[in-house]
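Researcher: Go.
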Amino acid sequence: MLKEPGPGRGRKPVEQVEFEVFYSIKSQPEPVTPLLERLIKQFRLRPDQAAKVLEMHSIEVINRQLYDIHTKASDGKVKNLGSYTAKVFGLETTKEKGK
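Model: Structure:
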C-alpha cells in the first residue's frame, strides 16, 4: 500500500539538465633545446631563468659565458654554480630578492 505524496510533498522528477563547459587552450610548453637543457642541468639554473637567458642574450654570447663559467667552476673558484651563472647573465637571484 503505497501512498501518493500529498500536495507539496516529495520530490519532483528532474526533467532537464544543462551543463556549461569552460576550457582554456593550454599553451604548448617551449621545446627543450640542447642549450636550454644545458643551462638547467649543467649550470643549475631554474627553467624560468634559463628561458630568460635565451631571450636576453645571443647564442654566441651564452656559449662564451658558459665556457668562462665552466673554466672557473673547474678551477674551484665558484661555490654556487647556479647563483654564479644567474649573476653572470644579469638575472635576479633569490638572495637579491630578499634584500
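Model: The radius of gyration is 29 Å.
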